[in-house]
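Give me the fold.
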Amino acid sequence: MAITTTTASSPLFSMNLNDSLSSAHCPPLLCSLPHHRPHLAGKFRVSTTSVRPKPYVPKPPMFSVSSGASQPMVPPYNVLITGSTKGIGYALAKEFLKAGDNVIICSRSDERVESALQTLRAEFGAQHVWGTKCDVRDGNDVKNLVKYAQDNLQYVDIWINNAGSNAYSYKPLAEASDEDLIEVVTTNTLGLMICCREAMKMMLNQPRGGHIFNIDGAGSDGRPTPRFAAYGATKRSVVHLTKSLQAELRMQEVSNVVVHNLSPGMVTTDLLMSGANTKQAKFFINVLAEPADEVAKYLVPNIRSIPTSGSTRPTYIRFLTGLKAYSQIFSRLAFGARRNRYLVEE
């Protein structure tokens, strides 16, 4: 699982090694792996137990604070993705556009927004994609993002909270600077809360309602993330925030606005590769990591299937499941599969 810069994030993957590769010796990018607990040959053992939030089933009837009647949600969908000028956010935007949807991208960098917008419009047409600058840490910026979306699309069906940061920092917390800690926490926690708040306020007033997807990362399952402890702590809060919002909507008997979790797994971003400085890190990146485009090809149809089916049930969509991770590690140990796929191993 990958993380990116403050403008386009892809969460770190979650993995957990056995005692021989415990968190005390685990490289910073390799600290948890989802779901069952199969045993591998030799010194590797994969623990794939994960904490998956039990989804709340909203109560009928359909509810909207708007005066209009509830409307069905049918494609093409209007999609907004934060931190979407590179990495997994950009790849998701492309896949939605390929599916015929309308997409708004954003980043805190004007230059990156303009560059990404030109590329996407050249391929998919200016009538399907828009972009604007937005710093998710700033409440006014996010409110302006909502207004921008309403001005151009009238409503948003799918809002994906992808923006996040690790400040490109891999070091013990005792060595972290104030600036790095503030960057990580305000982007990943405060920024997510602001975006959820504004997305929910907007969708509650839409007859179509809407779906919000919060992207998780390493630490989201409660496992340790040494050398990026602040990042892991903020990603743990993603799951809690999502569950709390699901509970709030249920208490309000709102069923046409739903908050979900989204897990892209281990994505080969620049930041992930920058942390590949140990033998173990190279091993797991080669075995488990996938390019952003491949991950997006899996995630987008699963995301779109939720409004298409009319489901009002919160979901947790995962790309890298425990079974998939175990199978790939076993293939590597048994047959040498994926050796030196991205990085030359010693």
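The chain has a mean pLDDT of 82.
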